[in-house]
Here is the input.
Amino acid sequence: MSAEQSPSQAAAFTADSARRHRKDRFFRRLARCATWFGVIMLAVLIGGILRDGAGSLSFGFLDSFPSRKPAIAGFKAAIWGSLWAVSFTALFSMPVGIGAAVYLEEYASKGRLVGFLELLIANLAGVPSILYGMLGLIAFVRVFGMEEASFMGLSLPFGRSVIAGSLTLTLLILPVIIISTREALRAVPSSLRQAAYGLGATKWQCVRHHVLPAAMPGMLTGVVLALSRALGETAPLIMIGALTYVAFIPETPYDPFTAMPIQIFNWASRPQAEFHHLAASGCIVLLVVLLGMNGLAVWLRNRAESRMP
Amino acid sequence: MTGPGAKSTPLQLGAPRISADQLSKRAGRHIKERAIGLSLLACALVSVLVSVGIVTVLLAEALPFFEAVDLSDFLTGEVWTPLLEPRHFGVLPLVGGTLLVAVIAALLAVPVGSLAALYLAEYASPRVRKWLKPTLEILAGVPTVVYGTFALAVVTPVLQALLPDVRVFNGLSAGLVVGIMILPMVASLSDDALRAVPRGLRDGGYAVGATRREISVGIVYPAAFSGVLSSYLLAISRAIGETMIVAMAAGSTPRLTLNPLDSIQTMTGYIVQVSLGDTPAGSIEYQSIFAVGLALFVMTLVMNLLSQRVKRRFREAYS
Here is the structure.
C-alpha cells in the first residue's frame, strides 16, 4: 500500500467486499442445491417405482411365470434367467479379465504394445452396449452364419441361448474388469514382490502366492460391480434376441432364456396400466438385488482397506 | 536379478551339487512359466479381438446395405421410412433425434454436474463429501431400463401436467432422464479433476483476498478445465449411445425436428425397434440396423477419442 486510504475509499472497499461475500454465499447455496438435485432425483426415482410397484409385489409375483393376465403374471423365469446369465458371465469374464490385467500390470514391459492395448481398452469401455449386442448376435448367436454342428458336447451356433447372452455380456464388462483389476494390482506394494523374488520365487509364484491374494479384495470389488452392470444390461440382450415370453427355467446353457431387464422392458411397453405396475415391481426386485451386490462390493472394499497398510 | 529369465549361477565349491532330478524340475518350471506368460498375453489380446470384431461385424453387415442405398443419400437424406413404401433411407432424422436427446441431457447434466463437482471439491466438508459422493454415484449404477420405467411412470406425466402439448412419447422426457443418468458421471469425474489442482493455487487466491467463489470459478475450474471438459465429452458420448431410456420414452417416429415435445426416434431406438420385430436376416431392414450402428459407432468413437485427447493435450502440468 503506497498511499493512505481516504474514508470514501475504505467505504467503497467495505461495500464491495460485502457484495463479493454475498455472491459467494449465493454461489455456495446454488452449488449445494445442484448437488442435492441428484440425491433428490434418486429419492424421486425410488419413490416413484415403489408407488407403482409395491402393490403388485408378492411371493406369487416372484414365483410365477409371465402370463397374458397381469393378475397372475410373475417374475420367476426372469429371475432364474438373470441368475444363469450372470453366473456364466462371471465364469467367462473373471479368468480372462484378471489374466489380461495381470499381463498388463505384472508381465508386460511398458512399451508400444501396452500403450496400444490401453488405448483399445479405454475405447472399448466407451462403446455403446447395443453395439456389443450386434457383435454378439453375429459372433455367438449365428457364429457368422455357421451351419449347425456339434463336437465334444459343444453345439454351434449357440442360438438365442444363455451361453450366447453370457458371452456377449462378458465382452461388454471385460474392459471394466481389466481397468479395476489393474488398479487393485497397482495398490499392492512392490516390497511384497521384491521379498518373494528375494526368496527365489519365479514370476508366476510371486504373482500367484503373493500379489493376487493381496489384491484379491480390491479385484473382487471390481468384479462384483462389473457383474452388477451385466445384471442391469438390457440392450445387448434384446439384440441377441433373448425372448420376452419364457415360461420355463433354463436347464442347460443352450436353453433360451429371458432376464429381469428384458421382462421389465416388455411389461413397460405394453399399453395396459396393470403391466406398468408389474414393470415397476420388477424394477424393485432388480434394484434390491443390485443394492445387495453393491453392499457386498463396499464390504469387500472396507475389508481390503483395513487389511492393507 | 530376478524374474523368469534370471539364470541360476553355478553353485560355490563345497556346496552340494544339483541332482539331475532337480535340474529337470527346474526346466519344467521354466516351461510352465513361459506357458503362463503366453496365456496371460492371450487374455490381454482378447481386447484386440473384440475391437476388430466390432468393426468387422458392423462393416461386413452394413456393406450390402450400401450396395442398395447410396452412401450420400444415407448421410444427407431427410426422410427415414425403412419399413414403409416408398422406402427412404436418409439417416438425418435419426441423427437429429439422437442429438436432440443428447443436447437436452447435456443442458441438464453439464451445469448441474459442474456445480455439484465444485461443491464437492471446494465447499463440502470431508464428512459430508464422504457420503454425498457415493450417494450420487448410486445414480450411475441404476440400470437404464429402470430409468426408462421412471421416465414413463413419473417424468412424462409431470411434464404433461406442466405443459399442454406433450406427447406420451417425447424427446424432452427422454432427454431429461438421460441427463439425470449422466449427471453423476459429470459430477464425479469433474470432482476428481478439480481435486487434482494443487493447493498452492488456492492459497495464492486466498492470499490476495479472493472469496471462495472467486477461487473456485476463477482459479480452480480453469486450472482443471481439461479434465472437466473431458468428463463433459465422455458423458455426451454416453448420452448418444444410451438405448433403453430413449427406446422406452422418446417414441418411434423418425422426425427431423427441434421440438422436444414431439415423439421422435433415435439411432439406438431404431436398432431396438427392428430387432424386436422378426425381420429376416439378409433383408434391407436388417442390414440397415448395421449401417445405423456403424454411424453410431463412429459418433461415439470420435467423442471418446476427443475426450482422451483433450485430457492429455490441455493438461496443465503442476509439480
